[in-house]
Amino acid sequence: MRIIYPILSLIFLSVSPLAKAVFLDEIQVYDGEINEPGEFGLEIHANTTLSGQSSPTFSGQRLTQGGARITPEFSYGLSKTIELGFYLPTVYTPDYGYESAGYKPRIKWLPIQNSDTQPWAVGINFEYSVVNTGIDFPRKAAEFRGIVAWKNDKWSLAFNPVIDSSRSDGQNSDWILNYHTRAIRLHNDSLMTGYGMEYYQGQSAVNNIDSLSAPKQLFAIIEFKTPDSFLNGMNVHMGLGYGWDSGDRLTFKMILTPRL
């Protein structure tokens, strides 16, 4: 595990020539996966904006030019249907160096889970984020993420309607809507485990939805597993995204899931 962080830092610091004035610690569509009771899990989220906006939206904001964002996510299966999670986001920028970005606890409830006899999974995830000054504004926010997933031996599909609200710094606490969706073609007979697309629709007020002007991103996705002799057969998710309507123009992301 100690070798993963240096490798990620070198990769992401070498491919970040332009900037985006947003802190993105996690770019992911939630599917029907959940830890077994008593099972610990770890995912390492990493991403960088290769082409995006360079103007800050508030004073002291950590821009992404020349920087990287790496976030370990720890999880624990509390019961068959409840999973606890905890994020420790970090960020590197040339102006401020390497920093802890804050913390984000979450809880996932998945009462309907797919199995060999039925393909559906339905649930909800609640997350409360507290980030440090300069990382995001406002610094605190609450998020409810719906999870609707369908899976068989060939396809994995997922849809996440998400509403969130600012909870600090005197900001408007109206609920904001965005949604994420993905379609992955599964391959279970080789090291490559799947490929497909993910789509992210940006924010719009719940009581005044404006999908035309909201930022959008479309990612090409590939998923694979390393050989058992290398990093103990770690699962790797990689994506390259194109954005429009004020979305980041070009974004690269990775999610690493080591076997504990």
Which terms would index this structure?
mainly beta; 1 helix
Describe the structure.
The structure is a single chain. By secondary structure, the protein is mainly beta. 4% of the residues lie in helices and 52% in strands. It has one helix at residues 4-13; strands spanning 40-51, 68-77, 82-87, 90-93, 97-100, 102-112, 120-131, 140-151, 155-166, 176-186, 192-205, 216-225, 235-244, 250-257. The chain is globular. Mean pLDDT is 85; it is low at 9-22.
* SSE pattern, N- to C-terminal: HEEEEEEEEEEEEEE
Content of β-strand: over 45%
Mean pLDDT: 85
SS element count, helices:
1
Shape: globular
Q: Roughly how much helix do the residues carry, as a percent range? A: under 10%
Based on CA atoms alone, the radius of gyration comes out at: 18 Å
Q: Give the tally of β-strands.
A: 14
Low-confidence stretches: 9-22
State the secondary-structure class. mainly beta
User: Main β-sheet: number of strands, strand sense, barrel status?
Assistant: 12 strands, antiparallel, barrel
Strand order of the largest sheet: 1-2-3-6-7-8-9-10-11-12-13-14
- What is the end-to-end distance? 10 Å
